[in-house]
Amino acid sequence: MKIEKDRVVRFHYTVSEVGQEPIESSKDRDPLVILFGHGNIIPGLENAMLDKRAGENFGVDVKAAEAYGEYREGLGQRVPKKHFGTAKLAPGMQVVLQTNFGPRAVTVQKVGMSVVDVDLNHPMAGKDLHFDVEIVEVREANPEEIEHGHVHGDGGHHH
Ligand code: ZN
Description:
Layout: E1 7-17, E2 22-25, E3 32-35, H1 43-49, E4 57-62, E5 76-80, E6 94-99, E7 102-111, E8 115-119, E9 129-140, H2 143-148
Antiparallel strand pairs: 1-2, 1-3, 1-9, 4-9, 5-8, 6-7, 7-8
The structure holds zinc ion.
């Protein structure tokens, strides 16, 4: 069965900045499971997966614009320290912050007495990425999954 819209894809991935050591891999845990064609993964990776089948391995370079977006200036923000809970903060650290746009990964730039300067760019913004992908399983999604826009059951949402 080929990968196309409204199918469920289970896959392993390893991601690196182009030409560098891997940043992250799913190989040390369970594969990722997504409903394909619903924007659940970055566009460049979704495009590269189209028409692949279970058992296939491939590598793909994804430009920043098709990954986590270009790095944008002017996304620095000063946030009251209380929003960070009890976490011990240090410059360069990545934390998830509740914002008006939902949870967002930010990078700590400077820690003051009562405020913290953060960069709202995604940590991988502006980076061209390389993915090595192994397709583990492809199956039809059920109507409820398509309606919700995500996978249910093993590796998916439970609700
Ligand atoms: Zn659901």
